[in-house]
Amino acid sequence: MLNRTDIRRNYPIIRTDRLVLRKIGPEDEINLYNCISDPSVYPHLGLHSFSALFPSRLYRYFEESNRTLSTLHFAICLHEDVSLIGLVSLQKWDDEKGTAILGYCISPPYWNKGIATEAVRAVIEFGIQELGLKKIRGRCEEGNAASRQVMLNCGMVREDEPQDNMDVLGNPGLISFVLQV
């Protein structure tokens, strides 16, 4: 099993048939900002608005997460192009409890191509096999059928009694999914 020291020493790279999931770096600052601040994406992320005001401020947030490893963020890239087209994360990683919260977003030009499902499936597999995760949770808005389908396609099941149906801004209407090993 990988621990934080292993990951700090050598951040994992995950490869799938079409994708490379890698550490977010300074070269991703603009693409990351463009993806997250896109009006089709941003409202679904539950982020505080100040985080995305400036590309450098947003990148510093991810840089700090990489430093502390409280969250493992992976840039989603196509094999033929190392440019970031999305993000997949294991947030609030608790290695003692074996838990994490799934997060992901994809730039709109790459929607409906199975990329989110492929990236999420790969990071879930990584979390279980390499980090020893026993429980992975995810949430999305009730009306976000595409995000709901990604989680279902990756083996997650809807929780009848979600722990918290509010997003970080206090907006109700989130549904919760869980994958328990």
Characterise the protein shown here.
This protein has 181 residues and is α+β, with helices and mostly antiparallel strands. Helices cover 30% and strands 29% of the residues. It contains 5 helices and 8 strands, in the order αββααβββαβαββ. Strand 1 (14-15) and strand 2 (19-23) form a beta hairpin. The two termini are 16 Å apart.
Low-confidence region ranges: 165-169
CATH class category: Alpha Beta
Largest sheet geometry: 8 strands, mixed
Find the CATH superfamily: Gcn5-related N-acetyltransferase (GNAT)
Helix-strand string: HEEHHEEEHEHEE
Radius of gyration: 15 Å
Count the strands? 8
Number of helices: 5
Strand share of the residues?
25-35%
Task: Specify the structural class.
Answer: alpha+beta
- What is the CATH architecture term? 3-Layer(aba) Sandwich
Question: How far apart, in Å, are the first and last alpha carbons?
Answer: 16 Å
Overall helicity: 25-40%
CATH topology: Aminopeptidase
Which strand order do you get reading across the main beta sheet? 1-2-3-4-5-6-8-7
Mean pLDDT: 88
Apparent shape = globular
Whole-number total of structural domains? 1
Describe how the helices and strands are arranged.
Blueprint: H1 4-9, E1 14-15, E2 19-23, H2 29-37, H3 55-68, E3 72-78, E4 81-94, E5 99-106, H4 115-131, E6 135-141, H5 145-153, E7 157-158, E8 174-180
Parallel strand pairs: 5-6
Antiparallel strand pairs: 1-2, 2-3, 3-4, 4-5, 6-8, 7-8
Helix pairs in contact: 2-3
